[in-house]
């Protein structure tokens, strides 16, 4: 097939080619992201915020993830697909394996992503031993927002930095084929990137990771609240939509088109 595999991702890392990853949650956006050259598409549990209107990612269910991942699979052709395991689907190795198997069997994605540090090592090992490709995710892990006491930069002090170094090495050792570093200080993210063989995929962690990931809505300005400061939107799709809808509403009320479709009876 034309789809990238984890061996292609490993080869990119070896030759120093950056991995470009974005989220998508539906077939149309997946098709656009895919045809624009993204190497990996993440069906992120950020869909809880972006699509479902929740305040955090905690309410997102495995069924939510499966529905959206299946749509992204149908819309895309080339990118390697990674589906987040949501909060509550990652408990012990056995439960996590059953849930990851459901995602793979019901959606056709190639990999799952698991948020968390050392506690996730036996879970990642279990999945990898059963033939599942896993992306790890450390630093700011939004599923743990209440336990962490908010959203903030990680790795600032030596205790936090030492823990992140250990987590990254252990998760690579457990068999993860890539690791997301979210809101990790750029210097530490660069250091961790150098210390690993697998690619680090950064978000809000500076330019020296082996790849980058962003929520697609934050990249294209499809938001009603300001995006995170690291996002640097490349477009303002929200105003494109508001202008188009505003014109449509005005034209409709003025009875000037759009012209209704009339089926001729002859
Ligand atoms: O859910 C998500 O979109 C993510 C990325 C921001 C890494 O986990
Ligand atoms: Na996520």
Automatic annotation (TrEMBL):
Pfam families: Pantoate_transf
EC nos: 2.1.2.11
Keywords per UniProt: Cytoplasm, Magnesium, Metal-binding, Methyltransferase, Pantothenate biosynthesis, Transferase
Gene Ontology biological process: methylation; pantothenate biosynthetic process
Molecular function terms, GO-annotated: 3-methyl-2-oxobutanoate hydroxymethyltransferase activity; magnesium ion binding; methyltransferase activity
Cofactor(s) for this UniProt protein: Mg(2+)
Cofactor: binding comment: Binds 1 Mg(2+) ion per subunit.
One GO cellular component, as annotated: cytoplasm
Broad class of where this protein is predominantly found: cytoplasm
Active site per the UniProt annotation: 182 (proton acceptor)
Role description: Catalyzes the reversible reaction in which hydroxymethyl group from 5,10-methylenetetrahydrofolate is transferred onto alpha-ketoisovalerate to form ketopantoate.
Record's subunit section: Homodecamer; pentamer of dimers.
Name of the protein this chain belongs to: 3-methyl-2-oxobutanoate hydroxymethyltransferase
Species of origin: Devosia marina
